[in-house]
Amino acid sequence: MYLVFDIGGSSTKYALIENDMIIEKSSKAQAKTMDEFVKFFEDTIIYYQNKYKIEGIGLSSPGTVDPLTGKILGQSAVEFITEYNFAYHLENRFSLPVAIENDANCAALAEVYYGKYKKDYIAFLIIGSGIGGAVVNKGNIVRGAKLESGEFGYMLLKNEDGNYENFSTLATLPNVRRKMVEKYGIKDTTYQIFDKYFKKEEPYFSHVDLMFDYLAMGIYNIAYTIDPEIIYLGGGISSDERFINELKKKLQSGIFASKEYDIRPVSFFNDNNLYGAYANLKKTIKEGRSLKQRSEDD
């Protein structure tokens, strides 16, 4: 039995996996401090250890993750996450194998190990409150010199005011909602905003349509600079066929139509990160790698 966690900006999901299948899962609102964060992990692990034989712990995390040391660097949806090597702490605390990987890389690993389509050169775009990304070549994550290859969310685009913003802030529904609150005082949920887009209600339609423009711009740039065989879309929104279909329509219009794209949702939708954390954990155990050993050697 394996326990895996998917750390997000607003919550952390966790699941028990047995025989390559999630058998139980839940989530908890994100902690506000590192102390609360670590306590949540400790309490959850102890709870499940009292019920099952836990053989390892897998972690999917935002930020620039070094999977060999467990350290997290750079910017993250969880601001305090770089303060302390909690993965290394958990391995020491529980004397269990612990493996940690970037969340978008986890989504990619799930597709590599368990997905339906086997291609050599693949890009992943993980859409949530922001945008994460990953590149896979022949089954391996392409990491780059500073472990930031595939961080598509940091691409700079010009917004409607002519100012530069990153891809993450321009091309996600939660950021559309933020702008609706700021500009109009509208506090509809992202689901309500998306539904009203399809009814062509304003100002919802214009803002969501602009979001699709930005999303298409980013994918167009990825398609030409990375030239992958497939671009997978992950995150919760990937399970909504309407979202995929609208994006495909946008990519078939105007300047975007000059490039061919193979766009597909990931196989496990919002659970890809959990399955990827599990795949990374199993690989780490098989290779006999240890965060403890690596951290002591550094």
Entry keywords:
alpha/beta, 10 helices, 5-stranded mixed beta sheet, 298 residues
Structure explained in plain terms:
The protein is globular. α3 crosses α9, α6 crosses α7 and α7 packs across α8. The longest helix is centred in the last third of the chain and has 22 residues. The chain starts with a strand and ends with a helix. The strands form four sheets. The chain has a five-stranded mixed beta sheet, with helices on both faces. Strands 10-9-8-13-14 form a five-stranded mixed beta sheet, with helices on both faces. It has a two-stranded antiparallel sheet with strand order 5-6. It is an alpha/beta fold. The chain contains ten helices and 14 strands.
Q: Briefly, what is this?
A:
By secondary structure, this protein is an alpha/beta fold. The chain has helices at residues 34-49, 86-94, 103-114, 167-170, 173-184, 190-198, 204-225, 241-251, 272-287, 291-297; strands at 2-7, 11-18, 21-29, 56-61, 64-65, 72-73, 98-102, 121-127, 131-137, 140-141, 156-158, 164-166, 230-234, 263-265.
Which helices and strands, and how do they pair?
Layout: E1 2-7, E2 11-18, E3 21-29, H1 34-49, E4 56-61, E5 64-65, E6 72-73, H2 86-94, E7 98-102, H3 103-114, E8 121-127, E9 131-137, E10 140-141, E11 156-158, E12 164-166, H4 167-170, H5 173-184, H6 190-198, H7 204-225, E13 230-234, H8 241-251, E14 263-265, H9 272-287, H10 291-297
Parallel strand pairs: 1-4, 4-7, 8-13, 13-14
Antiparallel strand pairs: 1-2, 2-3, 5-6, 8-9, 9-10, 11-12
Helix pairs in contact: 3-9, 6-7, 7-8
